[in-house]
Structure formats: structure tokens, C-alpha cells
Amino acid sequence: MKQFFTVLRFELLSMIRAKSYVVSTVIISLIIVIGLNVPNIIHAFNGDDSKQEDGIGDVFSDEKATYAVYDEKGIMNAKDLKAYFPNTKLLQAKDTSDMKKLVENEKADAGFEITSLTSYDYYVKNTSMYDSNTQLFDQVMTQNYRLSQFREMNIDGNKVNQILSTQITHEEKILGKDGVKNYAYTYVLIMVIYMMIIMHGQQISMNVASEKSNRSIEILVTSVDSNALIFGKVIAGALAGICQVAFLLAVGGITYSMTAASWGNALDMLFHIPPQVLLSFAAFGIVGYFFYIFIYGALGALVSRTEDIGSAATPITIVFVIVFFVTFIGMNDMGGSMVKIASFIPFSSFMTMFVRISMGTVTLIEILVSFIILLASTILVGFGAAKIYRKGTLMYGNTIKFKNALKFLKHKD
Predict the structure, then answer these.
(1) Which of 304, 290, 314, 276 is nearest to 378 (CA)?
(2) Does an H or E element contain 120, and which?
């Protein structure tokens, strides 16, 4: 046990003191802080020029827009037209030619020639992919046509409009999990564990292969118990990754608590995660993290050069990527048999069972069975990795094939 803690302490301190670890942590922290302060940065540059009502700007109103209007037959009342465009400058053209000149000389952004109650001509100097003027004017013409028809029929148009604009309201009663609301933070947490395993798994494989290539592993394996070595290295790498992610999540949480108002609390769904979801993520995520990290550690012992890590780790990386896509698909089909089966397979349960807990309905028995299977599998993989590590690190030359590595598990030390 003493050897284990010695290896753990040495490897952990080496990892967290590494320049790459510190620099990457600082850079990602800065990106998080800057990203969450984007509204404040925009406000600092724009000042108070942009006025908003209830936190939402007027999509259709552009204070800088100027429209030219020619209504020869007086189809639309000028006051009514102005009411439809309260923040827009309207120029009354004398005739069609006058309106064209205003648009051509860019004194008006666009021009509208009203030809009848249900038609108009639209003039613009240069078309744009984002031109929504005609959509807005269509609404104006439609509203004006309806009111004119109502007046002819002696119908109170305002009352009709009030009836037509009445909004139907509803209140959603969720009896289970709010899958839509939980989707955002579930996806983020899945991506976090995905990146942790990919990055730190490769790093541990590189460390083991590097020690093997410079022959220092021969001294370590013969003087230190292989279980203490592999468990110390893997747990140290896992702790380094967990500490880094925990620090980054804390930075994000603290920063958002200070900038939530500037976001209009729009990101609450990402940061206000229920405690039970965080607990299930910690339990399944950490154990699943160890499961894959042990495998990556064993793979590092099967190669003699760090350059061969990529090819040696390809099969397990492919499996891991498939698991990620199965989980992602399961997030959109929580009742599917695929995600239910995957939630009991050790290679995928740490993701899929967490998704089921976060977004779906799952019994306590299912959670316990899945966790026990995952935990037992991780322990077996850990001791198996230690055996492969001891045998593989003393063999040099070509990369040891996986089927040969499995034979190591049958031999007694």
C-alpha cells in the first residue's frame, strides 16, 4: 500500500505541475470567463444605444431605416401607416419617379408603391439575403385590407382583431423528467466525460510507453509491485483530470453567477443542475472514467514506441466513439431498447445510464444493478491491466497483439 501511495503522489504531482496541464487549464478558464462575459463586453462597446423592452428588442423596428411610400389612390391612411412603423422614417413620394430617385440615391432604404388594397410594388436598389421588408409590408397590407372590409360591413374591426389575436395559453404538468429542459446540461456533461477519457487516456498511454521506450520501466517493474504501479499511475491521471474539470466547472459556475443578469438568466439550464443528477454523473462518470483509463494504461504497455500508441489504441477508441453516438441517439429516444440494453454494458453504461437518470425514468433497482456491474467490471479490468502491464512492459520489439495480451491474464505470476 505504501508503494501505491508513493507512485500516486509522484505521478499526480508530475501531472499537475506539467506546463501543458497548467497552460491548458489557464487558457480554458480564460475562454470560459470571456465567453460568459460576452454580453458585458458587447454592452461596454455599444453603450446604452440599444434600447430593449422586457429584455427583447423590436425585431421589425429599425431606427435607422428610411422608407419611401407612394400611395396615389390614398388607399392607406398616413397615420395608420406611421402606426405600423413607429421607429422608422417614412418619406411621402410625389410620384413613382420621385420614389425611384429616393431609393436610387440611397435617401431611402426601400420604396413601396401601393397600387390597390391587396397589391403593391416594392423598390430596392440592391437585393439582400436578409431583406424582410416585404414580409413586414405584407402584414401591414393584410391588416389594412381586413379593417377596410370590416368597415364596409359595419363590423368593429378592433373587436375582430382582438378576437383573432387572442392567444391560447397552457400550463405543462410534468409527471416525470423534463427531458427538454435537462437536454442541455446532460449533453454538456456527456461531452465533458467524453473529452476527459479521450485526452487523459491517451496521455496515460503515452506516459507508460515513454517509460518503456527509455527502459526505466524495467527498474520500476522489478522493484515496485505492478499493481501499485498501474493503479498509482491510472488513479493519479484520473485525479488530475477530475481536478482540472472540477476547477473549470467551478470557474464557469462562479463566473455565471456574476453575469447571469446580463444573459437574462438564459443559461440557467446549463448551470442549475439538480443535485441527484450531479451525484449520478459523479458516480457513473468517475467509475466509467477509471474503466477506460485502465484499458488505455494497459495499451501503453503493449507498444515499444510512443509513435505506435495511435494504432494500438484505435480499437478501444472506436468502441468509445460508438458508445458516444449510441448515447447521443438515446438522448432523443429514451424509450428505445438500444439505450436500455447499453445502460447495463460496462463499456457504455457510465454514459447511457446517466442519460436515463437525467432525462428518463429508471428504477432504483436498475441503477444499482448497472452500477454494480460497472464497478465490478472496472475492478476486474484494473487487475487485468496490472497483469498486462507487468508482462507487456518487459517485452520489446513489435507491438504486442491484443489476443496475445489476453493470454497474459491466464498465466500466473
Answers:
(1) 290
(2) strand 119-123
Residue 43 lies in a domain: no
Which three-class secondary structure state does DSSP give residue 115? strand
- Section 45-60 average pLDDT: 44
3-state secondary structure of 91: strand
Place of cell 440592391: 126
Q: Which of 208, 252, 214, 245 is nearest to 229 (CA)?
A: 208
Q: How much is the average pLDDT of 93-120?
A: 90
Can you give the pLDDT at residue 295? 86
Of residues 245, 227, 77, the one with CA closest to residue 151: 77
Which residues, other chains included, contact 65 with Cβ-Cβ below 8 Å and sequence gap of 6+? 88, 89, 109
Q: How far apart are CA 41 and CA 47, in angstroms?
A: 10
- HSE at residue 114, side-chain half, CA atoms within 13 A, is 26
Domain boundary among 127, 158, 189: 158
- Give the span between the Cα atoms of 247 and 346, in whole angstroms: 28
Q: What is the pTM of this model?
A: 0.63
Q: Are 196 and 319 in contact (CB under 8 A)?
A: no
**Cβ neighbours of residue 302 under 8 Å, at least 6 residues apart?**
312, 388, 392, 399, 400, 402, 405
SS3 117: coil
Cell of 2: 505504501
Radius of gyration of the chain (CA): 33
Show the domain range for 385.
2-35+178-408
| Non-local CB neighbours of 131 within 8 Å, separated by 6+ positions | 110, 124
Same domain, 344 and 215: yes
What does the pLDDT read at residue 413?
52
